[in-house]
Design goal:
30 helices, 7-stranded antiparallel β-sheet, alpha+beta, 17% strand
């Protein structure tokens, strides 16, 4: 009883938590008349001031003083009651409870020897130790319990086991592993196993503690300890099966723990490939079928079990996470499973290379426009706007390249950073998911790989426009609204295609000249004539690439609108007067931009060829190199090979570029000083198109005639490159002694120019009429140096092809200036977004290809696929066609489609050197024709036929099915038609690939991983393709059967598997684990009643749960209750593994 005094009234009080209720009577069912919240107050025995003091006799007062100054006076009837109330009120506030919790935590820490409990991951980080996948564990154990006590109501526990190891070096217990939770079982057999490794500091003397917990609530992981047992690791190793009691704190037995241990040996012994039956010695192979699963493992597990060899994995991947299991086979055997997840080392390194290609291409486009010189209005403002646009793109690409290069830390981009624009070219959450399976009863093992990655999309470019697939479609349709815009767009496309073709043909001609020089140096005539014939064919193609009317149109435009420049000050003839009447010398906007470029550090590649804007003062300042440069280490740009050839042709040794020179980005007066001279100077007069063609003809005719002369064919006539087969516009120009006119009948601008063309025409025509005069007067017996004899002709041909490329670039830039600025800006925006998505897609594809080449044993059948068809890449995606994910689907569709344009080559890579232990693919070319050089190990390279260079393209297929609540909404409103059409189109492509693959006649036995008669019959690829056809044309809701069939077809045709969703974390985790269990069931006889248990175990304890921790620091899948109800049943995570988390 306590008295509450305001006017000395007696009240009855009741304390509940931090609430003090007071009543009028002692009736326990009466309503309270008030409440005092006991927060932010102090309990005092002395009054805070005189006015609140209580002086009544037989009363024992105390006071509640609140922070705001309010005071409540209370009194009890005895000193004992007052002490009891004061103590209870002090403990009632949250501050008191928090203080008590802190005191208990400190007590626990003291009992742990002042060290917190450390898990294995943190232990390895503290020791700076990474898991080595090639390390053979000391032993592996499987755990089971029996006779665990039930609770007071007779209900069995929900047991899980925690394994702790005592590290004697630091005197601390480390949580080494834990098992899955088994629902309602007193005799659980756990599916996850534990491997003990010496690299973690373990030895035979290490103490291992096993603690059994009863998990009362799975969401919060609330559990109470049942009992524990402690043994030495040596005791586990020495005994095949160890059964020990579990003791509680009172040292009472609460159940028993059975530890089954086995040693491991490398899978290499007696194995040819991972997809052939394992040949185990007979001594270890008998009686395997007779064991029972009740104790989780067969009686004779003291024998050595297989351990997969994954030594090459560390060359390409980092930060591996490994989880091991043992599942029950329907035939009475056991299935050993190793599940691995690792980060790709290419995640940031490869996009860094790719962005360098785009930087180089933007430099070329900038140089084209600047090389035109300054134009008059109305084209001057468009030219400046075009320059400014390319400059902005260069800054974006350069900053992205710097960010990729500066990235430190893990080798993956977490899903929480997907909107971070600084790393937008890197794929999201890129990991290798690998499963190794071994069924001892079936004598069979195999590797299965997935590349899991977030959707290839530009998350930072938030817009609800349908993604790239809609944007690209709009660009194709928009020019039709205006015939002028459509014509300009067509001319730009034609000009760009011609430039790329010229560069490629020029590169091939230069390669032929280099071969001729080598043969001439050795005076070997064998092989020289076929090379000449090939050069003639390529030169004919060069001369037929351009429509002369386009070139004439561009040259007329330059002549009409170019602003004449008298010096290099940037001041043209149309300058104005200032206020004093003097000429104003303010620089034009064009010149200001070009001067601004000189201070821009673009982080260009270390070796920029002659096509880059960095042009040195003299050739000698730039080309300084050692002699030997392997062709496999060529520059990333196609034109660099030509530069190296220039040095051979000009009589000097190959040289290299000093990257510190030529920091001036764009010097239009120095451009033509380059050895290759790809661009006109603003003060240059463009060379007439006919003269360019004649120069190429004359130089090729001269070179071929001299080669034939050296080969002993002195009487061979000169070759005519152009045939009179296309009417008057394509007739060969004949002698024109009187009138200086071009082929269209128009007089030339100057007499000098006309005389030059007439002389060239007369010389070529005279040669054709009067026989071959290129070799007249030559005596083969007096020619000691064949190289010196051929070099002048090669130099002329090189200069003539330079002139051709100059005119082509000038034509291209003219049409680009005429393009509508708004249309050009839209094209620019779409291209940048496309580059972002393509970079993510290509990086993921390269990771998959490198995994197949380096982390699998050499497979001749796969080499046949590479050399004939190219591999199949199956992209499985779980995006919903609703909301923001429509854009992601559109972006990913185009990015996957763009992968078809990339060409891959295989190059031999010996054992990695100590200086660069990680094999790195190299990328060359431009947006329209990228070539990726893939290094391959010696073991695989020996399977390639001798003297054969394997080049191939990948066939990508993309299937998408939404599975969450947004997919349910999209299907209910009938909005998924584009997705369904896309799946049908990709089925058609997959079927075409299958028809070509079937002609290879690869035996089904190799496809089915060496299955023997004990295995259940597998459906053939043809049957699966027919089932897929039916599925893609059906209207079934959330038809995930499409994804399952496509995955099986891909595996059987030796394809690459990719699985994605928005962030490759939650839905991807469900899809990958489901596919893993389907493989175990179909190919390794996982027992039917074990399927759901195995699936839940992989999702709760496996790699995908760890992936959520790495991305969001929350070890839960980000599904809510609504999403869980809408997911297909096979895609639902087990209880306790999902909840509110960052998506």
């Amino acid at each position: 009883m306590i008295f509450l005094f305001t006017v000395s009234l007696e009240r009855w009080c009741r304390l509940r938590g931090n609430l003090l209720f007071y009543f009028k009577s002692r009736d326990p069912w009466s309503e309270p008349i008030g409440v005092v919240v006991l927060e932010q107050c102090q309990v005092r025995l002395d009054p805070p001031n005189v006015s609140t003091s209580l002086t009544a006799d037989s009363q024992f007062p105390f006071y509640l003083v609140f922070d705001g100054g309010l005071c409540q006076a209370l009194a009890a009837t005895s000193d004992y009651d007052r002490s009891s109330w004061v103590q209870a009120i002090k403990a009632a506030s949250y501050e008191g409870i928090r203080a008590e919790l802190h005191a208990l935590q400190q007590c626990i820490e003291r009992k742990r020897s002042h060290r917190p409990l450390t898990d294995l991951h943190m232990w390895r980080i503290q020791r700076q130790h990474m898991l080595d996948m090639s390390e053979l564990p000391l032993c592996e154990v499987s755990l089971a319990c029996d006779n665990l006590l039930c609770d007071g109501h007779g209900r069995p526990p929900n047991p899980t086991l925690v394994v702790d190891v005592y590290m004697a070096s630091t005197k601390v217990w480390v949580q080494y592993a834990r098992t899955e939770i088994i629902e309602r079982s007193s005799n659980p057999g756990f599916l996850s196993t534990v491997s003990f490794r010496a690299s973690d500091g373990l030895s035979g003397e290490s103490r291992i503690r096993f603690t059994a917990f009863d998990v009362r609530e799975r969401v919060s992981q609330t559990a109470i300890p049942l009992g524990s047992a402690c043994v030495l690791l040596s005791a586990i190793q020495d005994s095949n099966r160890l059964r020990i009691p579990l003791l509680n704190r009172a040292q009472t037995t609460v159940g028993f723990l059975t530890i089954s241990a086995w040693a491991l040996e490398s899978e290499d012994r007696g194995n040819s490939t991972e997809h052939t039956p394992c040949r185990i010695p007979a001594a270890t192979n008998h009686q395997v079928l007779s064991h029972r699963r009740s104790q989780s493992l067969p009686p004779r597990l003291g024998v050595k079990m297989r351990f997969p060899n994954q030594a090459e994995l560390k060359l390409l991947f980092a930060s591996p996470f490994l989880q091991t299991y043992r599942f029950h086979s329907g035939l009475g055997g056991d299935i050993c499973v190793h599940e691995l997840m690792a980060e790709s080392r290419l995640c940031f390194a490869f996009p860094h290379q790719l962005v360098g290609i785009w930087i180089h291409q933007e430099k070329e486009l900038l140089q084209e426009v600047a090389g035109m010189g300054e134009l008059r209005e109305p084209w001057h403002s468009r030219q400046v706007e075009l320059l400014d646009r390319h400059l902005h793109l260069l800054r974006l690409y350069s900053q992205a390249r710097e960010n990729l290069q500066a990235h430190k830390g893990s080798y993956f981009k977490a899903s929480s950073r997907r909107s971070d624009r600084s790393l937008e070219f890197a794929p999201i959450n890129l990991h290798l998911q690998r499963m190794w399976v071994h069924n001892d009863t079936l004598n069979k093992s195999g590797f299965y790989d997935w590349i899991t990655v977030g959707a290839f999309t530009a998350h930072s470019h938030k817009s609800k426009n349908g993604g790239l697939i809609k944007l690209v479609q709009q660009l194709k349709e928009s020019p039709t609204r205006s015939s002028a815009n459509y014509q300009i767009a067509t001319k730009i496309s034609m000009a760009n295609d011609a430039i790329q073709a010229i560069k490629q043909l020029r590169k091939e001609v230069v390669e032929a000249m280099k071969t001729l020089m080598r043969l001439a140096k050795e005076k070997q005539t064998v092989g020289m004539l076929p090379i000449c014939e090939d050069m003639i064919k390529k030169t004919r193609i060069l001369l037929s690439l351009w429509d002369p009317s386009l070139v004439e149109e561009a040259l007329n435009f330059i002549e009409e609108h170019k602003l004449l420049v008298t010096d290099d000050s940037g001041v043209g003839e149309d300058f104005s007067l200032d206020s004093s009447g003097k000429h104003s010398l303010i620089l034009s906007p064009f010149k200001r931009i070009t001067q601004q470029l000189t201070s821009l550090d673009l982080k260009s590649p270390d070796i920029d060829d002659f096509a880059t804007p960095c042009t040195p003062k003299t050739v000698e300042d730039v080309w300084k190199i050692q002699e030997c440069e392997d062709t496999s280490n060529e520059s990333v740009h196609s034109s660099s090979d030509f530069t190296n050839a220039n040095e051979l042709i000009n009589g000097s040794e190959p040289k290299s570029l000093d990257p510190d020179l030529g920091r001036m980005f764009l010097d239009t007066n120095e451009m033509s000083s380059s050895p290759s001279a790809n661009y006109y100077k603003p003060t240059d007069e463009p060379e007439p198109w006919d003269l360019t063609q004649l120069n190429i003809e004359a130089s090729v005719m001269c070179l071929v005639s001299k080669v034939k002369f050296l080969c002993g064919r002195c009487g061979s006539p000169a070759v005519r490159l152009r045939q009179n087969a296309r009417g008057s516009r394509r007739t060969v120009i004949t002698n024109q002694p009187i009138t200086n006119v071009n082929k269209d009948g128009k007089p030339f601008e100057t007499n000098k120019e006309g005389e030059t063309l007439t002389q060239a025409v007369n010389s070529v025509t005279k040669v054709i009429k009067n026989g071959n005069k290129f070799t007249d007067g030559l005596d083969i017996n007096k020619i000691a140096d064949w190289v010196a004899e051929l070099r002048p002709s090669m130099r002329k041909l090189r200069q003539a092809m330079d002139g051709l490329l100059k005119t082509a670039r000038l034509t291209h830039s003219v049409f680009r200036v005429q393009q509508d600025p708004k249309a050009a800006q839209r094209v620019c925006n779409v291209q940048y977004r496309r580059d972002v998505c393509f970079s993510q897609a290509l990086t993921s594809l390269i990771s998959g290809l490198m995994t197949r080449l380096w982390c699998h044993k050499p497979d001749p059948a796969f080499i046949i696929c590479l050399s004939t068809l190219g591999p199949l890449a199956c992209f499985e995606c779980l995006l919903s066609y609703h909301g923001d994910e429509i854009d992601m689907w559109g972006d990913m569709s185009v990015a996957v489609e763009d992968l078809r344009t990339v060409m891959f080559t295989l190059n031999r890579c010996p054992s990695p050197a100590s200086s660069d232990p990680h094999p790195m693919p190299k990328i060359m070319g431009n947006r329209n024709s990228l070539t990726v050089s893939l290094p391959v190990p010696d073991a695989l390279y020996t399977l390639i036929p001798s003297k054969q260079t394997i080049t191939f393209h990948v066939t990508p297929v993309f299937f998408n099915i939404g599975i969450n609540e947004m997919a349910t909404l999209a299907e209910s409103i009938g909005a998924t038609r584009p997705q369904e059409r896309s799946n049908i189109d990709n089925y058609i492509r997959l079927n075409e690939y299958y028809l070509r693959y079937r002609k290879l006649n690869i035996p089904e036995l190799s496809l089915n991983s060496g299955r023997i008669s004990a295995c259940s019959p597998q459906r053939s690829v043809g049957e699966l393709v027919e089932e897929l056809k039916i599925s893609v044309h059906s209207n079934k809701s959330k038809n995930v059967e499409i994804l399952h069939l496509a995955a099986q077809i891909c595996r059987q045709m030796k394809g690459l598997r990719f699985t994605s969703c928005k962030s490759a974390k939650d839905r991807t985790g469900m899809a990958v684990t489901l596919e893993q269990c389907q493989i175990l069931a179909s190919e390794y006889h996982l027992a039917e009643h074990e399927f759901q248990r195995a699936l839940d175990c992989m999702r709760s304890e496996g790699c995908r749960r760890e992936n959520t921790q790495k991305n969001t620091n929350v070890r839960k899948y980000a599904f809510n209750s609504l999403q869980l109800l809408t997911l297909p049943k096979s895609y639902r995570p087990p209880a306790g593994t999902y909840g509110s988390a960052q998506t």
